Amino acid sequence: MKPIIGVTNLIDTAKNSYWMLPEYLEMIEDLGGIPLILPVLSDKEDIAQILSQIDGVLLTGGQDIQPSLYRELQLECCGETSLERDECECELIKQAIAKDMPILGICRGVQILNTIHGGTLYQDLATQYHTYVNHHMSAPYNRYVHKVRLDHYLRYLLGEDEIAVNSYHHQAVKDLGKGLEVNATAEDDLIEAIALPSKRFVVGVQWHPEFLYDQDEANRHLVHAFIAKCKK
Questions:
Q1: What pLDDT score was predicted for residue 54?
Q2: How far apart are CA 232 and CA 228, in angstroms?
Q3: Inter-axis angle of helices 44-51 and 83-98, to 10 degrees?
Q4: CA atoms within 13 A of residue 97's CA, in its CB half-sphere
Q5: Does the chain have fewer CB atoms within 10 Å around its N or its C terminus?
Q6: What ranges in the chain are assigned the alpha helix state H?
Q7: Are 223 and 109 a contacting pair, CB within 8 Å?
Q8: pLDDT means per 10 residues in the chain (232 residues)?
Q9: What pLDDT is recorded for position 14?
Q10: Quick check: 231 and 31 in contact, CB under 8 A?
């Protein structure tokens, strides 16, 4: 039996609709899982019931996270937020972690993982973190724009000290949340990956493996390891 991976959906507020980038779903399917797009729910019991039907959670990219969740006022440089999505994902993640369910966070996913553990975010890198590293590339996204240094679990898992990644984000982890461990940093020392070592697989990466896995062994191995954990 293939594991069922719940995928958090994307919200288009202008069109009042939910949507999904096919790359997330294709990546899960290609690497041995069955993707299931999750609804945005507010009831804790409904979220618990959904989690009882899946084997792992993939946290996708999307809007900025509401700064009030990490105890800051929203600055003008902060982008569009969706408190509805934030609150649903916070509850989803907390319950999934309590069940020791495997979680892989991508881009916004690493940011919200940090947020629910009490960490903070840069609301806008261009304004708050001046750097020479390109963190906001243009399309196509299946190419490398900078390198990251690996540490702890990711270095062990991937068997590398450094890998090249793509990059498309304007927010990022600032202060690390409680219990989390930095697993990768960019050439400018920006945090690029975190993990929760007390759990069997809770990892967040700032880059986008969904655009690289089919051509890059490290990213393919990362996602395959996540899906393999969902089988146990």
A1: 98
A2: 7
A3: 50
A4: 20
A5: N
A6: 22-30, 44-51, 83-98, 108-116, 125-128, 152-158, 217-230
A7: no
A8: 96 89 97 97 97 98 95 90 95 98 98 98 95 95 98 97 97 98 98 97 98 97 98 76
A9: 85
A10: no
Q: Which residue in the list 117, 146, 208, 221 is annotated as catalytic?
A: 208
What is the length of the chain?
232
**Taking the model in full, what pTM does it have?**
0.97
Residue of 91, 107, 170, 192 marked catalytic: 107
The pLDDT assigned to 232 comes to: 64
Q: Is residue 168 within 8 Å of 138, Cβ to Cβ?
A: no
Q: Which residue has the tokens 């993982």?
A: 113
Identify whether the C-beta of residue 51 lies closer than 8 Å to the C-beta of residue 225.
no
Among 91, 210, 221, 230, which one carries the catalytic annotation?
Answer: 210
Q: Is there a catalytic annotation at residue 23?
A: no
210 is catalytic: yes
78 an active-site residue?
Answer: no
